[in-house]
Design a protein that fits this description.
Strand content: under 5%
Number of helices: 6
CATH superfamily: Response regulator
Shape: globular
CATH class: Alpha Beta
Number of domains: 1
Order of helices and strands: HHHEHEHH
Distance between the termini: 24 Å
Largest sheet: 2 strands, parallel
Structural class: mainly alpha
Oligomer: single chain
CATH topology: Rossmann fold
Length: 140
């Protein structure tokens, strides 16, 4: 969902930015389709993610990336442990977007297996922070 929301916001706000987003998971299996809840949540925002397929994080993805943003601090810790040479580019998504704001819990919980309303809450958090991310990327 974050990947689709980023691409949409980037196109609307700053199409000149040369950044491209990708998505991978620590516990993801290759080729899984998005959940029905994710598809519906994105459709409400004018996005079709039904063709997206999951993939696991791998070394090539990290090496090829300028910036790696994780949704949870445990994901960040795992990537820092597994890929120490890439540690300078690995950040917690909300923390990076907020630029150290006063939010106490910077994690965005995975909505998998939760209610549609929880998916909506996650999408709202993603959208809010993606706008801040794009602003930060424009400034860098």
């Amino acid at each position: 969902m974050a990947q689709a929301l980023f691409q949409k916001a980037k196109q609307e706000l700053s199409p000149e930015l040369v950044y491209h987003s990708d998505s991978a998971g620590i516990a993801a299996f290759k080729g899984d389709a998005p959940t029905e809840e994710a598809i519906l949540c994105m459709a409400k925002r004018g996005l079709d993610i039904s063709c997206y397929r999951s993939k696991p994080v791998d070394k090539k993805l990290l090496v090829d990336s300028f910036l790696v943003l994780t949704m949870t601090s445990s994901q960040k810790s795992y990537l820092l442990y597994k890929y120490p040479p890439d540690s300078k580019k690995i950040h917690l998504f909300r923390d990076y977007c907020q630029n150290n704001n006063d939010i106490t819990n910077m994690d965005i919980e995975d909505p998998f297996g939760k209610s549609f309303s929880f998916y909506e809450e996650v999408c709202d958090k993603l959208e809010e922070n993606i706008y801040k991310l794009i602003k930060r990327l424009r400034e860098e």
